[in-house]
Specification:
- The protein is α+β, with helices and mostly antiparallel strands.
- It contains six helices and seven strands; from the N terminus they run ααβααββαβββαβ.
- A five-stranded mixed sheet has the order 2-3-1-6-7, with helices on both faces.
- The N and C termini lie far apart (about 75 Å).
- This is GGDEF domain-containing protein.
- Pfam families: GGDEF (PF00990).
Length: about 220
């Protein structure tokens, strides 16, 4: 008993530091993870992507949901949160099967990085793959919805040596072109091939976008 009492002053600070360390680890993990989707946040994605883009067969994607404001306005923000969470989980599963990872940038906008052969059938990968997965019926408890997204892709094979910011810019321009045209997806080709005329950066100096294989057209939501 005396030995236990003598050990308490030493053990107590040790236990306290262990609990504090666990608390800090949880805080750090929370700071790196979006609480709604479980996806990584912007800073964590950037940190990992800066390393990952140096590997061969890497593609960067940006996704933006279509008609999401209408979902919130019609069915409420709780249903909107369910849609965001479901899309995040579906995107994460698709990325994991392709050696990649995803992040929520905020609102209804997501980004991802995957390993994808530059000669891959993008209609199969994006129209019948990712887009179909995201649009699968979602039972929210009160209404069944089919989330839809516009997807932009920029492959490192088309822009050798490009920095992450350039790859994201290419994917961003392709995504907004897909949204404007009512397509499932668009892909950005070599930088500087054609001036951007349809992306959201149209008119900004130095912004360029090449539209390669056109995506399968769908009705705009």
């Amino acid at each position: 008993m005396n030995l236990i009492l003598q050990a308490l002053p030493v053990a107590a600070p040790t236990v306290g530091w262990a609990v504090h360390a666990l608390f800090l680890i949880r805080r750090l993990r929370t700071a790196r993870t979006d609480p709604l989707t479980g996806l990584m946040c912007r800073d964590e994605f950037t940190s990992r992507a800066l390393r990952a883009i140096r590997r061969p067969h890497t593609a960067v994607l940006l996704l933006d949901l279509n008609g999401f404001k209408q979902i919130n306005d019609t069915h409420g923000h709780a249903v909107g949160d369910q849609v965001i969470a479901a899309v995040g989980h579906r995107l994460a599963a698709w990325c994991a099967s392709r050696g990649g990872f995803a992040a929520r940038l905020g609102g209804d906008e997501f980004t991802a990085l995957v390993r994808l052969d530059p000669d891959a059938d993008l209609d199969a990968e994006l129209t019948y793959g990712l887009s179909a997965l995201i649009s699968a019926p979602l039972d929210t408890g009160g209404v069944t919805l089919a989330p839809r997204a516009s997807i932009g892709l920029c492959h490192t094979a088309h822009r050798p040596g490009a920095e992450l910011s350039e790859l994201l810019r290419g994917a961003d321009e392709a995504m907004y072109t897909a949204k404007r045209l009512g397509d499932h997806w668009r892909t950005a080709g070599p930088a500087g091939a054609y001036p951007t005329v349809t992306g959201r950066r149209a008119g900004r100096p130095g912004a360029h976008l090449t539209l390669l294989a056109p995506a399968r057209r769908r009705a705009a939501s």
